[in-house]
Amino acid sequence: MGAGIAEVLAKSGLDVIVREINDEASAAGKARIEKSLSKAVEKGKLDEKARDEALGRLRFTTNIADLADRQLVIEAASENEEIKKSIFAELDEVVTDPEAILASNTSSMPIIRFAQSTQRPERVLGVHFFNPAPVQPLVEIVSSVLTAEDVRDTVTSFVSDVLGKNPVQADDRPGFIVNALLIPYLCSAIRMLESGFATKEDIDAGMVGGCAHPMGPIKLTDLVGLDTCLYAAQSMYEETGDPATKPPILLSRMVDAGLLGVKSGRGFYEY
Ligand code: 3HC
Fold this sequence. Notes:
Pathway: Lipid metabolism; butanoate metabolism
Keywords: Oxidoreductase
Helix content: 40-55%
Order of helices and strands: HEHHEEHEHEEHEHHHHH
Family: Belongs to the 3-hydroxyacyl-CoA dehydrogenase family.
Domain 3-hydroxyacyl-CoA dehydrogenase C-terminal: 175-271
Largest sheet: 5 strands, mixed
Structural class: alpha/beta
Bound molecules: 3-hydroxybutanoyl-coenzyme A
Domain 3-hydroxyacyl-CoA dehydrogenase NAD binding: 1-172
């Protein structure tokens, strides 16, 4: 998601710094963005000049202190609350502009917990993109109980006017709008598969051919990432106790096995 979000920002004309955890992750993120932009050129959606300009607006670092002068930071670390909280605490230390906005792309975790890791909780909110970020038009704007109205309004205008995406307002509740509906659906599909009710191909064909979804739920879990689905389900189940969000055992076992979907080359399907 981080690479996709960085691509969207750079294509919108913004100066972007991508902070990764190590040089390998930085190189992989950069290669992913280059490939995606070059594919857009091949398809005639972008000219070479625009691609090179977008790439020129991106800088990569492993040092969080390089984010000191940023006006907006979007955290897109993996769905681990402790990691995200420590990133917010570090950002609070290094980002110097008191007006800067600190956002999280979390799928389902409470924004208020990240806000409370900083001394500026009113300037923290959720800005949730959808996979693949360069394609999906929606962005959920998630205000915590402490997010300032002007911060919410500034980010909402930024998402629509600068990024050209469609913002919707969501409450800081488990799964916000989309994942509150999507995660139970994906978990049900995986339960259907693990109980031997139907094959993955037929489950996917059912939702594509029967309900006109662009892809079926098993393939979509592979696209989103099995780890992301698992952590989103776990955090929603922990807070709500809703059995529809209880992570299926098959999902946990596959994540333990490193079968994370498209990003690892194998999930329910092979890539
Ligand atoms: N980056 C940039 N562009 C991409 C892309 C990527 N990673 N993947 C696909 N595209 C573009 C293609 O270039 C193509 O553009 P074109 O129509 O202008 O030529 C267009 O998207 C369609 O792609 P394809 O023709 O290759 O394939 P499909 O028609 O099968 O579309 C899809 C692929 C866009 C992924 C489509 O299947 C889809 O929309 N699937 C559903 C995705 C979805 O539901 N996402 C939400 C997940 S939930 C989430 O992310 C939240 C999280 O918190 C869990």
